[in-house]
């Protein structure tokens, strides 16, 4: 047989086609593997086909990290081999990719192998309570610590059981990056001298404030309020202000100072006229009573463990109260005085339903109706100067013991109050990614169409294509 005849045979021709196609496929596979081996390409070439983009970050977050002027470091306090929280690592990859070199990390740190890492690299006062598995976001001396709880949206049922309803991974990281790169720093003074909790007694709320760039200090009102005080914090006073303390507090507030007052139900019969003198300047009054809630959906097990109604205000508008609800145990009520004052704006924060009672602890008199459990007041002092206070008839909800049992949502409300008072505006609003699986709703006509398509049309197309190829090959 001649060589020319060999090359002209059909079998050689189609065999050559097969070799060429095989070579092309192998070359493509090699090229794809080379490209995928490049460091950042797999992070760029990604497709999130989930309905709510569960594994993607929003354009708002992308714009934030693209425009960073300072470097942000991210540390994961766990061995890389054992950290398996995929949604977190997926999100971090995107922050790094879009950060144009300003987002560095994540760096994995095994605290068992390097137990002094935290003490060597961070201010111990700002990372108290940190544990393995937490994530540290740092920019200069500013840090923010995130735990797994910060990545989850938790709802509580009627019996107090916790359920994860969504993921807040992007919300947590974007907030942390925005916080540590901000130049804002405010000082909160915990006031003592009237039976209040000290800052060290409320370690969880103290840690939450520190991690949001608030400096925490302690003071008394025996002298003038410190010049660097941005906010005074009164956690559960049980005794009244002295005359000199009242004067020092009023001087501070009249200069545009802000304050948060949290009062538990008193065990003594001592009234607090000097505190109420302060509140009257803002048309508010603290009552000496105990409130019970009788609407079943608004209390937990006992009528005094109230799940309050949360009213829309500058404090609550970014908190999604339907999911981020709290319990207030053993509450006293707050009243709004019917006195007309200019340049004063009052917002109700917490309240009860109409099916509630209030028992006066002095007279035993019982009242029925809805009651305010917390209120906000914004008094314009002059020009752009404002004095803002928050008055809440409960403090137990932010104690360590209570938050350990029923969640730390209370700290979110306190932080939002502080941010409102200091005009810290969070322009970036990111909603949690819901874990709910919505049902696929189809009409009867659509169901029939899909049934025919899957059971008849697609199988017939596959069979027809197979027969066509088989017949063609048979006739070669």
List keywords for this structure.
476 residues, alpha+beta, Glutaredoxin, Rossmann fold, eight-stranded mixed sheet
Structure description:
This protein has 476 residues and is an alpha+beta fold. It has 4 domains: 1-37; 53-184, Glutaredoxin (3-Layer(aba) Sandwich), CATH 3.40.30.10; 185-421, Class I glutamine amidotransferase (GATase) domain (Rossmann fold); 442-476. Helices cover 33% and strands 24% of the residues. The chain has helices spanning 3-8, 10-37, 41-44, 59-66, 86-98, 117-121, 169-180, 203-210, 243-254, 273-280, 400-406, 409-421, 444-474, and strands at residues 72-76, 103-108, 135-139, 142-146, 152-156, 162-167, 186-191, 214-219, 231-235, 258-262, 284-286, 289-293, 299-300, 302-306, 309-310, 328-329, 334-336, 344-351, 356-360, 366-368, 372-382, 385-392, 433-434. The strands form 6 sheets. The protein has an 8-stranded mixed beta sheet with strand order 8-7-9-10-22-21-18-15, with helices on both faces. A hairpin with a 2-residue loop joins strand 21 and strand 22 (385-392). Helix 4 crosses helix 5 and helix 8 (203-210) packs across helix 12 (409-421). It is elongated, with a radius of gyration of 31 Å. The two termini are 21 Å apart. The mean pLDDT is 84.
């Amino acid at each position: 047989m001649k060589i020319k005849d060999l090359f002209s045979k059909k079998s050689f021709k189609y065999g050559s086609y097969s070799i060429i196609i095989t070579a092309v496929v192998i070359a493509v596979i090699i090229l794809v593997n080379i490209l995928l081996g490049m460091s950042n390409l797999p992070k760029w070439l990604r497709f999130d086909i989930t309905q709510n983009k569960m594994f993607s970050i929003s354009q708002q977050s992308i714009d934030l990290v693209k425009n960073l002027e300072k470097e942000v470091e991210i540390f994961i306090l766990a061995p890389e081999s054992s950290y398996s929280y995929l949604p977190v690592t997926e999100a971090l990859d995107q922050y790094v990719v879009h950060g144009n070199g300003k987002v560095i990390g994540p760096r994995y740190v095994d605290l068992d192998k390097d137990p002094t890492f935290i003490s060597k690299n961070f201010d111990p006062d700002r990372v108290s309570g940190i544990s393995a598995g937490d994530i540290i976001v740092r920019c200069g001396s500013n840090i923010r610590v995130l735990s797994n709880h910060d990545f989850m949206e938790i709802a509580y049922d009627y019996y107090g059981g916790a359920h994860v309803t969504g993921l807040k991974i992007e919300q947590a990281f974007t907030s942390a990056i925005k916080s540590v790169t901000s130049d804002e720093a405010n000082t909160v003074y915990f006031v003592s001298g009237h039976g209040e909790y000290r800052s060290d007694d409320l370690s969880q709320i103290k840690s939450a404030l520190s991690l949001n760039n608030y400096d925490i200090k302690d003071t008394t009102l025996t002298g003038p309020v410190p010049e660097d005080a941005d906010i005074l914090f009164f956690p559960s006073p049980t005794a009244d202000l002295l005359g000199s303390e009242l004067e020092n507090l009023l001087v501070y507030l009249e200069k545009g100072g802000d304050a948060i007052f949290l009062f538990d139900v008193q065990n003594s019969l001592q009234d607090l006229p000097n505190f109420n003198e302060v509140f009257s300047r803002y048309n508010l009054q603290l009552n000496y009573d105990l409130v019970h809630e009788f609407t079943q959906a608004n209390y937990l097990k006992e009528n005094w463990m109230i799940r309050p109604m949360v009213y829309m205000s500058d404090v609550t508008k970014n908190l999604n109260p339907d999911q981020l609800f709290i319990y207030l145990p053993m509450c006293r009520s707050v009243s709004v005085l019917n006195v007309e004052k200019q340049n004063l704006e009052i917002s109700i924060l917490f309240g009860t339903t109409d099916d509630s009672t209030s028992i006066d602890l002095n007279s035993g008199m019982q009242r029925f109706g809805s009651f305010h459990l917390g209120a906000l007041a914004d008094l314009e002092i002059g020009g752009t100067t404002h004095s803002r206070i928050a008055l809440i008839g409960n403090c137990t909800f932010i104690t360590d013991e209570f938050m350990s049992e029923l969640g730390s949502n209370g700290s979110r409300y306190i932080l939002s109050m502080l941010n409102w008072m200091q005009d810290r505006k969070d322009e970036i609003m990111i909603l949690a990614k819901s874990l709910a699986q919505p049902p696929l709703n189809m009409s009867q006509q659509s169901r029939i169409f899909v049934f025919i398509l899957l059971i008849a049309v697609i199988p017939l197309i596959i069979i027809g294509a197979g027969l066509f190829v088989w017949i063609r090959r048979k006739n070669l």
